[in-house]
Amino acid sequence: MRTLLTSQQMKAVDRYMIERMKIPGLVLMENAAHGVYEAIRAEMEPCSVQVFCGTGNNGGDGFAVARILLANGYDVKVVVLGNPSDISGDAAENFAFFKETREFYTVITNREGLEALPEADVYVDAVFGTGLSRPLDGIYRIAAEFLNERDALVVSIDIPSGISAQTGAVLGTAVRADITVTFQYPKIGHFLYPGREHSGELQVVKIGIDDGCDIPLQAAVCVYESDDPDMCLGQRPLDSNKGSYGRLLMIAGSYGMAGAAVLCARAASRAGAGLVTAAACGDVVDVLQHTVPEATCFELADENGVLAKEAADMVLKLSQGKTAVAVGPGLGRGEAVEEVVSRIIAECDLPKVIDADGLNALAGHLEVLEEKKGEVILTPHPKEFSRLCGLSVGKILEDPVKAAVDFAAEYGVTLVLKGSTTIVADQFGNATLLCVGTPGMAKGGSGDVLTGVIGGLLAQGKDVYEAAITGVYIAGMAGETAAEQEGEYSMTPMDTVRYIGKVIDDMVVEYISADTIHGCGGGEYMPHRLQQPTEIVMEPIGTPVFQASEADAAEKMEAEETAESPAASAEEAMEEEEPTIVVPPVGEAEVQPDEPAMDFLEKYADDPKPATRAQRRRLEGLQEKERRPFFRHRAKEETEAADDMTEEELVNKVREELPPDTPKGPTRRKIG
Ligand SMILES: NC(=O)C1=CN([C@@H]2O[C@H](COP(=O)(O)OP(=O)(O)OC[C@H]3O[C@@H](n4cnc5c(N)ncnc54)[C@H](O)[C@@H]3O)[C@@H](O)[C@H]2O)[C@@H](O)CC1
Ligand SMILES: Nc1ncnc2c1ncn2[C@@H]1O[C@H](COP(=O)(O)OP(=O)(O)O)[C@@H](O)[C@H]1O
Ligand SMILES: [K+]
């Protein structure tokens, strides 16, 4: 799990370090530039590099990178876009060297100027960072388009120029980077499309903004990605029984849409619910009894295969003794459905997840949410959300985090806005982005699976925000596994259901105490969560921008100094050292799963970074196959060499080659 900052929060952190911690801005910029330089050096030996610089601090980073590259033998040209006399502050300090020597920079104002430049091996995009405030136009637009046409490595500093750090939106046009190097904290725009795709491989480097500033703790947005080690569940206690894992009441399906109920019920069971009770109209019950034998079923009153108003009394009666409700998949539409859904919300005090036709039933009747008795999770895709909130889909996607957070706060619900990046927002202004799932899930029925998983977790006693986040993670990871096994084109939602168990099994760790309700752990591992909306104060500078008083800060420093021995803190610091994280590139390369092996290998020979996990696995598999003869050959040589050794020499050699003791990871408790 990673904390994401907005541009405003990042600026506030920056100011804290400069004004309070007295780290000069130039030092931060130098550290940032070294991070970018390391990223380039890891990819390319000294070669020709053009650094496109704007006139703000992003450009300042660019000048510093250019200087470091020059000092390390790269052939560098700085391309200044905009008026050099606008360069000020730290950026001007870093520009000074180029201004003086004149030899390594040029100011470009039009396309002809760019086209007259020689081709380079690497282009660095240091035009705009978090300060982007309006769509790119003029020379900036031309330069972004020019960079996108280059057949060379493009490295963006902080965020691809033209991408909004807040929303991931393209403002006018935007650079498509192969690598983006950002500083200390990723930004929301790195994880929302189209920003996620434009960022390429994301690297996060430390620049000296460390502990001591509480703004990152106040951040309300965080992200989970595939295989995130922080996402875990506790073990089931050995002496538990089905009653320990809750009872889910599911109301789903109608004539012709029994499948939605089947997927939802199966997913809930796979997510661990102790008992799933499916309430539906007659035809659906018949199907459920055959396909989901583990569920108990009740027939509800219907009219032409869709719930009748009278069904509401039966549903409310059935809800007694249950621990959660899932309602909506495949319910169909009509006044009766609206009444059933409204009454469940207003009269049943259990936590509930509402999806699909449950959401359609709510659209236009949002006042019902003001009367809600139990906590509510809504799981719309953008179109369903548009029907709910009245904003157009386009408007929602302009700033989906804001749209989700605003709605959740206004109606006091947890909102799951589904998509290629799914956003979970709670009523306090917190949001979690989940970069899991696969285009293989873009197939009818995937949403029903998610509803079942969330319902199953709710039934087991998970808090609504946790159930929503964990549910999206599990369904997304199960979808990714299904895509690996069955292919992105062919996988079905039922395949996703099949792999839920594998995903959950990988998430179960021994070290979470099972005393969280019903043995479903994870609480303390979930993101830091604000209980009150927080505002980051930007003005006035220098005085109480940050809440802690001088006296508090001095006290805290003194306490920290006396609390730890230097050796212990150094050791801890090493342990806590955050590695540079690398987010796999997304979207760019569209490779069909059925592509012949050789074409696939050739396509990625120079750039082994296919778009999806499934594609990466496939590539790794093929590369491994390619390598095999070599390994066999080496193994044979080694055996022959070993034959010539005495036994003692052989034992010593093996000892030398043994890896040092590695710490043991969490293991599952053995039963029996
Ligand atoms: N915040 C931090 O902690 C650090 C920030 N650093 C760098 O500083 C950057 C932010 O610097 P700035 O705040 O100066 O912002 P930028 O360098 O991103 O750009 C701001 C300048 O561009 C202008 N501008 C914005 N959009 C424009 C458009 N479409 N067309 C023309 N002009 C436009 C603005 O008016 C402003 O003058 C970060 O992205 C990062 O690269 C680093 O130096 C390291 C430390
Ligand atoms: N390109 C994608 N990448 C990741 N996840 C996706 C993608 N497309 C769809 N999904 C996921 O699949 C599910 C689809 O839900 P939904 O649109 O409600 O489907 P349906 O109503 O047909 O069941 C959501 O959880 C969504 O996040
Ligand atoms: K940039």
From TrEMBL:
Region called Disordered, residue ranges: 551-579, 603-672
Reactions mediated catalytically: (6R)-NADHX = (6S)-NADHX; (6S)-NADHX + ADP = AMP + phosphate + NADH + H(+); (6R)-NADPHX = (6S)-NADPHX; (6S)-NADPHX + ADP = AMP + phosphate + NADPH + H(+)
Gene Ontology annotations of biological process type: metabolite repair; nicotinamide nucleotide metabolic process
Binding site for K(+): N58, D125, S161
Cofactor: K(+); Mg(2+)
Residues in coiled coil: none
This protein's name: Multifunctional fusion protein
Biological source species: Christensenella massiliensis
Gene coding for it: nnrE
